[in-house]
Every structure is written in structure tokens, then in C-alpha cells.
């Protein structure tokens, strides 16, 4: 099938882009097009106009500092995945991006576009939610910073109003003595996951677990973040943490998997990512202590 | 809606090309219908099968998920542009022929473009890198074994070509 007709704008500056978006409430932003163009090709979307941001100057930033990684609206998945600096400050970016579609899709798709698309089975929204990141949103009326827990309102429903453009996203750095891990199960490598989990585990100098948190994709309408510190206890009882999670998830069934199977996967993935994250934290501690 | 045509200029296989087309013209359709380059194939039109893969400024992308207007001003390489100017097939093309990396050939243009970029970035890929590299391309015929062999053979041929060129210039 072919996309329906639309008016096309290719602004060169952010101001110009925001003006066009303000003038037409049913216009849509076109970034990498890896989610939007399939929807257009299948005629599941028919926006009046597309505002192609690919030529807007200044949106391709990828700024890595000690406190976190700022990813501009035109930073493609592949570029963020390859950045060793970004991976060192917030390893979950790389760990999750490897599971986003295929390498060729990642050459075009953008990190911010993936957040703005807000697919409940997508990896990056879960990562942003877990690390407590934010999205910087601009419109002709001004700018605002939206926290991840407020940004994902429902399936494919980000906190973006007509006229809004997500300018960048900020992924805070992984704190010291903390490890991170990501795992998912999909039918075929590169497909959207049936279920997935990201986790961070922090240890103190006596190797007690001071924080264990996980975020899930594919099992709820929006990324589900659970604090498992209490359930795992200071010794890191990952089986207990998994059992705790099983009682809290209410996944839905679809043609790809039954609700029970998704719940089962959630338990398995929980133990897997918590164990891997704890191992990462231990490595971090040993490195810091030079032994 | 009366569609406003756009003048689109881009470089395809090293040649400056222009076309007039509506904004909704996919790059895959511009190549095939407006420019007559039917080597780029179209299967699913939603990014899944990979047979429409072309190189955009050297990087493999789905031409069915890119509007031609977005590609304006950029450099596109299609399967027609992989061989040398005198028609000598590229190492990747030779390897696919040698190793029977195709049967019906429908998926082949996408594989050739994907693998060309893969080997440019990773001249000596591991088994895992080969599998990951071609994981976004579907083939209904071969069962993939000969495609994987072709990729490995292409890496050897490219290395041999490189060595030969090095000698030639030394
Ligand atoms: C075969 C295939 C497999 C895939 N598998 C996965 C997968 O496993 N996991 C996954 O997460 N994704 C997957 N994707 C989707 C891919 O990650 C997309 O790149 C991503 O979801 C959207 O990014 P984009 O830049 O392509 O956005 P676009 O497609 O351009 O836009 C998507 C939506 O977000 C809006 N938008 C984009 N950027 C902005 C912005 N800056 N401000 C406001 N609104 C904006 C658009 O208006 C549109 O509604 C897959 C895609 C394909 C084709
Ligand atoms: S036709 Fe483009 S990926 Fe299938
Ligand atoms: S050779 Fe027929 S689809 Fe691959």
C-alpha cells in the first residue's frame, strides 16, 4: 500500500518547525520514519501534514557528561549504540539498543522518536522510566521538561500535545557501585519483545543490596517500574524478587503470547537481569577498590 | 487533495538525478518508477523484509520507509551501483554467485547492499556479526546457509582484492 497524501514541510530551524506545528494541530513530526512510515504505508495514520525534522539544525546532539547522556531528536539509534562514551555513563542505552529492531532500522530510527512513539513493547521507554530520565519538549509557546513517569500516558500515547516537538531526552548516569542489565524474549531476533526487563542493582561496601529496581516492557500499557529492594533483601534473594513481581504484573494476551506465558517470562527475566546487574555492581566495586 | 509536486534532486550511483513527485513518493518507488532502477525490490513496505535496502550516504536503510523528498540532496547507492564502472561484479556480488547465495533473486538486492555496508564496516566479521548483520533481511528460498557462506566468501574476496590493489600501488 502507499501512504495517503499529506502536505510536506522541511524546516531548517527549530523555530520554523515549531511555527508550522503550531499552525496545524493535525500535523505530525517525521523523524526516522521507522514507525511512522509503516503506519502511513498501511494507512493506519493520515496526518494533514508532515513536519520532516531531518534538516533541522542542532537536533543531532549526543552530549555525554558525568551526570548523564543527552540525546537530541536526530540522534539515530545506531549512533547512540556505537558511542562508547554514552555506554560508559549509562550502559542501559547500549544494552537496550541492541534489541531495538535490526541494524538497518537502527541506522534511521531515532531514540527520541522511539520515546515519542511510546510503544508499550519498546525498549527505550522502559530504560528512560527505570533511570528516571526526562524528555525536553518545545512548542511555539515555550519549553518544558517532562519526567519519564509523566511522559508515558498510555500505549502510543506520549505526553505530547499538538504543536509539541520533543527536542531531546536525558538519561541520567548510572550511580556508583551500581550495575545494570537488560534482557528480553522475542519470537525472532529483532522483533518487538513478548516481554523484556531492565534492571539496576546497587551494593554497599559490605556487598549488601541497597537498591534493586526493574522496569518491564510488553507487560503493561506503559513501562512498569518496580522497586524490588525490599523483596530481594540485603542478601539479594532474586527468586523472592521474581515471586514478588509475578504477583504484581497483569500482562495481556495477544496473538504472540498468552497472558500466563508473558507472566512466566517476566519472572524468568527478573531473576536474570537482577543477577546480571548485581554482578555488574560487584565488578564496579572491585574496580573502584583496585582489587 | 490536489497534490503539490516537489522537485527532487539526488545522486544515485554517482549520477545526479532529478524527478518531480509528490511528497508521499517512497524512495523505493522513486527509484523504480521515476528513475527506472528496478533492481531495488519491494516486498512488504513496512520495513520487515529488507529487500528494498539501499545505501544512503553509505549506510544501509529501508527505501520503503524513506520519502524521496527526505533523501533529496543525499547520495543513494542501489544494487545497480555495486559493480565497478566496467561492469565487473563487486566482491559481494561475486561471492553470492560463487556460493549460490540466491535462488529466485528477489531478496538479493537487499542482501547485497546490506552485506556491502557490513563488510565495509567490519571487514572480518565473526559468525555472530554475520548473523546479526543479515538478521533484518528475509529470504524465502535459500534457507540462509548459502547466504552466510557468501558473506564469508565476500570477506575473503574483498581482502584479496584489497591486497592485490595494495601490491599494484606499492
Ligand atoms: C521492522 C521493524 C522492527 C522494529 N522493531 C523495534 C523494536 O524491537 N523495538 C523498538 O523499540 N522499536 C522497533 N521499531 C521501531 C523503531 O525503533 C523506530 O525507529 C522508533 O520506534 C521510532 O523512531 P523514528 O525516529 O523512526 O520515529 P518516526 O517513525 O519518525 O516517528 C514515530 C512517532 O513519533 C513521533 N515523533 C518522532 N520524533 C518526534 C519528536 N522529536 N517530537 C515529537 N514527536 C516525534 C512521530 O510523529 C510519530 O508519531 C521497529 C521498526 C521496524 C520497521
Ligand atoms: S519492502 Fe522495504 S523492508 Fe520490505
Ligand atoms: S532467493 Fe528467493 S527470496 Fe531469497
UniProtKB/TrEMBL annotation, chain A:
Organism listed in the record: Actinomadura litoris
Keyword Methyltransferase: no
Annotated SMART domains: CO_deh_flav_C (SM01092)
Pfam families the UniProt entry points to: CO_deh_flav_C, FAD_binding_5
Any one GO MF annotation of this record: oxidoreductase activity
Organism domain of life: Bacteria
Coiled-coil intervals, chain numbering: none
Domain (FAD-binding PCMH-type): residue spans on this chain: 1-176
Protein name (record): Xanthine dehydrogenase family protein subunit M
Keywords: FAD, Flavoprotein, Oxidoreductase
SUPFAM superfamilies: CO dehydrogenase flavoprotein C-terminal domain-like, FAD-binding/transporter-associated domain-like
UniProtKB/TrEMBL annotation, chain B:
Keyword Transcription on entry: no
GO molecular function: 2 iron, 2 sulfur cluster binding; metal ion binding; oxidoreductase activity
Pfam families assigned: Fer2, Fer2_2
Record bears the keyword Transferase: no
Ranges where the 2Fe-2S ferredoxin-type domain occurs: 6-82
Alphabetically ordered keywords of this record: 2Fe-2S, Iron, Iron-sulfur, Metal-binding, Oxidoreductase
Domain of life: Bacteria
Pathway annotation: Alkaloid degradation; nicotine degradation
Protein name (record): 2Fe-2S iron-sulfur cluster binding domain-containing protein
Species: Actinomadura litoris
Amino acid at each position: 500500500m502507499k501512504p495517503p497524501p499529506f502536505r510536506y514541510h522541511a524546516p531548517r530551524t527549530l523555530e520554523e518547525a515549531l511555527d508550522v506545528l503550531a499552525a496545524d494541530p493535525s500535523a505530525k513530526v517525521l523523524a526516522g520514519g521507522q514507525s511512522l512510515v509503516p503506519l502511513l504505508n498501511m494507512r493506519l495514520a493520515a496526518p494533514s501534514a508532515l513536519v520532516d525534522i531531518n534538516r533541522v539544525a542542532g537536533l543531532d546532539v549526543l552530549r555525554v557528561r558525568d551526570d548523564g547522556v543527552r540525546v537530541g531528536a536526530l540522534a539515530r539509534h545506531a549512533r547512540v549504540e556505537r558511542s562508547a562514551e554514552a555506554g560508559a555513563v549509562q550502559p542501559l542505552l547500549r544494552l537496550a539498543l541492541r534489541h531495538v529492531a535490526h541494524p538497518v532500522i537502527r541506522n534511521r530510527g531515532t531514540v527520541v522518536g522511539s520515546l515519542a512513539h511510546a510503544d508499550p513493547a519498546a525498549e527505550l521507554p522502559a530504560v528512560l522510566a527505570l533511570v528516571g530520565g526526562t524528555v525536553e519538549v518545545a512548542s511555539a509557546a515555550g519549553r518544558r521538561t517532562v519526567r519519564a513517569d509523566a511522559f508515558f500516558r498510555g500505549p502510543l500515547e506520549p505526553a505530547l500535545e499538538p504543536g509539541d516537538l520533543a527536542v531531546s531526552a536525558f538519561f541520567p548516569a548510572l550511580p556508583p557501585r551500581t550495575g545494570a542489565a537488560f534482557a528480553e524474549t522475542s519470537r525472532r531476533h529483532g522483533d518487538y519483545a513478548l516481554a523484556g526487563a531492565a534492571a539496576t542493582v546497587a551494593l554497599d561496601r559490605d556487598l549488601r543490596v541497597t537498591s534493586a529496581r526493574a522496569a518491564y516492557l510488553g507487560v503493561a500499557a506503559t513501562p512498569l517500574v518496580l522497586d524490588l529492594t525490599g523483596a530481594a533483601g540485603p542478601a539479594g534473594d532474586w527468586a523472592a524478587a521474581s515471586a514478588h513481581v509475578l504477583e504484581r504484573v497483569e500482562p495481556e494476551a495477544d496473538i504472540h503470547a498468552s497472558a500466563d506465558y508473558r507472566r512466566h517470562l517476566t519472572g524468568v527475566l527478573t531473576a536474570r537481569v537482577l543477577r546480571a546487574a548485581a554482578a555488574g555492581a560487584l565488578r564496579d566495586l572491585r574496580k573502584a577498590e583496585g582489587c | 487533495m490536489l497534490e503539490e509536486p516537489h522537485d527532487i534532486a539526488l545522486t544515485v550511483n554517482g549520477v545526479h538525478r532529478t524527478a518531480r513527485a509528490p511528497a508521499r513518493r517512497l524512495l523505493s518507488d522513486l527509484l523504480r518508477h521515476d528513475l527506472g532502477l528496478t533492481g531495488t525490490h519491494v516486498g512488504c513496505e513496512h520495513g520487515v523484509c529488507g529487500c528494498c535496502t539501499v545505501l544512503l550516504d553509505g549506510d544501509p536503510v529501508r527505501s520503503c520507509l524513506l520519502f524521496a523528498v527526505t533523501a533529496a540532496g543525499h547520495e543513494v547507492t542501489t544494487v545497480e551501483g555495486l559493480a565497478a564502472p566496467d561492469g565487473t561484479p563487486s566482491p559481494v556480488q561475486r561471492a553470492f554467485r560463487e556460493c549460490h547465495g540466491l535462488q529466485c533473486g528477489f531478496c538479493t538486492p537487499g542482501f547485497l547492499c546490506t552485506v556491502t555496508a557490513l563488510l565495509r564496516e567490519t571487514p572480518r566479521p565473526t559468525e555472530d556479526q554475520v548473523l546479526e548483520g543479515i538478521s533484518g533481511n528475509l529470504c524465502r528460498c535459500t534457507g540462509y546457509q548459502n547466504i552466510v557462506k557468501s558473506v564469508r566468501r565476500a570477506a575473503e574476496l574483498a581482502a584479496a582484492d584489497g591486497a592485490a590493489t595494495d601490491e599494484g600501488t606499492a
